[in-house]
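Team,

Forwarding the record for the chain on the shared tracking sheet. I've put the sequence and predicted structure together so nobody has to dig through attachments.
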Amino acid sequence: MKNLNLKNSRILIVDDEQSNIDILTGLLEIKEYTNVQTTTDPRLVVEIFQETKPDILLLDLMMPHLNGFQVMEQLQANIPANTYFPVLVLTADVLPQTKLLALAGGAKDFLTKPFDLTEVDLRISNLLQTRLLHTQLQNQNEILEEKVKERTLELENNMKELEISKNKAEASDRLKTAFINNISHEIRTPLNGILGFASFLAEPDISEEEKEIFLDYLRDSSDRLVKTVTDYMDIAMLVSENIEVKPKRFNLLTLFNGIQQKYQKSCAEKNLELFLEIPDQSLNLELNSDETLVSKCLAQLMDNAVKFTQKGNITLGYSHKANQFEISVRDTGVGIAEEAQSLIFQSFSQEDSSNTRSYEGNGLGLSLVNGFARLLGGQVKLESEKGKGTEVVLILPAETKKRPEMAIA
């Protein structure tokens, strides 16, 4: 979704020099962006903005008739409140105060000419990705607000369902509160990484080795941000019962080999051994279930295992018993205290939920696994001992029946 949405983004370039516009449009064409508008007359920007509703503005500062600061000032009245609209300033003015004035005037990023096209591409991609994520979150909030309105109307029209609807509204409020408390850290942290290391890349004296390091940080922050938003969207879909199960027959060994390959690097970085434990008689077994949901369960369990294991190993495996499969992830990590195990499947929960907790994460992993397991007709079992490790077993029927499609409430 990310690449498709980004390449369809509406991009507006404003520069009084046609040669600069040609360079930028050439770059965007190479990078397969399909919707680019340009103008050399800054007086037309507001009109173009109103007609095309761009997702990003690439703006020169020093122009006749209207300078870039004046353009940004005019646009403020056309940008809806609480909307993230990125302006990337591209200027030949290298004075520090110019950069500060541009950022104070509404710019989200700043580059001085002559600029490196690879860096320009990265800046544009990061800004568009941030806008996409903001838009998705805003849409989710609007959906939640609309659902609250619908529930309120039902309460007025049907007194028999008053208590049930009241409980649902309270649950929605608790989820929203937990979401707001959690999102501040889980969204801002990778965003700071993206913006911070993007600015480091603008430094003229950095080495190629440093660039690679900064790009690695950018990729990690972007991956974390995308995962966080995906988790929020999945939990919203689970709560609203809008996930359709699509069972098909697939080979478990192929799926597990892919998961092992995906997490080999992160395990190696922590000096953890990663084992694949599969009985010989199970090598060619197939499971009839929703491969996407099963894969998401495995990814959440592996993320937790890697995160909470500082030394030792992680073992990923499955077995077949009667008419069901048991998929397990076992680690030698910190473990979970017995008194916390009954709460660990709740949304936004970690054993340590304090503000000073040692591990990053939104606390949705096991809640999502539990929700997906129920959709697939299965269950989740957890065995853990503090300081010795944890084993989570996903028990699934060998044949998952397709659930009827649910109407969106």
